[in-house]
Amino acid sequence: MTNRKGIILAGGSGTRLYPITIGVSKQLLPIYDKPMIYYPLTVLMLAGIREICVITTPHDQDQFKRTLGDGSQWGIELTYITQPSPDGLAQAYLLAEDFLDGAPSAMVLGDNIFFGHGLPEMLEQAGRQTGGGTVFGYHVADPERYGVVAFDSAGNVTEIVEKPPVPPSNYAVTGLYFLDGSAPQRAREVKPSDRGELEITTLLESYLHDGLLSVKRMGRGYAWLDTGTHASLLDAGNFVRTLTERQGQQVGSPDEIAFQMGWITKEALLDRAKVFAKNGYGAYLEALAMGRG
Prior knowledge:
- The strands form 4 sheets. This protein has a 7-stranded mixed β-sheet. Strands 2-3 form a two-stranded antiparallel ribbon.
- The longest helix has 18 residues, at about 230-245.
- Strand 4, helix 2 and strand 5 (about 75-80) form a beta-alpha-beta unit.
- Helix 10 runs antiparallel to helix 11.
- Helix content is about 35%, strand content about 25%.
- The chain is built from 11 helices and 13 strands.
- The chain has 2 domains: about 5-250, Spore Coat Polysaccharide Biosynthesis Protein SpsA, Chain A; about 265-290, no CATH class.
């Protein structure tokens, strides 16, 4: 158990995915057999975090509540916070300041999917940091789409550049941020960028300037997917389907993780299996509860 609290940023208008997001939040779209938000939620659960706030738009919040409830079915506690307007990723720390109440945090973007052997250990290590911040760099073919990490000749991080036309490296900063309790205070000092947003890269630069930012490189054994386009949404669904059908194991299952973490009982897991009795997910949870998984 950790005193670190979690933030899932699931706001925004999803206009890049129109028309499929006109009537539903992007983070509630299906990624194969689960709503998208299950995947970032399970990342925080794997980090041992049980107090999590979900930041949504005002008109989408009821949909999230219907989908996730209060979290008690998974042995966690979910709090909902509204984001009146999408004014940048760093804004999340201002909105969640009262929820965090001085605690360190792990924020994950609601449209990011992480997978890889050793992921729980990597998250646990980042969560043990008592001060400063930890983010993750992932090698991509198109770094100009992201915040990009610049390294010196010794491999030390020198800066993080938002969507640079000439990227200083191929390492993009993923949508997962482990920051200490000073994040809201630092976020208040962030000035809007030219596009009018409170940029997360500016907040991270604050930590970097003070010598308090660690960038962990995710190796080839990890997958990081964002789902900002129709093509990447389909790719993510196919990726999860391939893993699920090939290995016979679930990806992004909060029910399975809650059971493995000892947060819910066998009986509670069997109750959850009954909810999904008409599909393979229910059969999977029943087998897991009975030790056949």
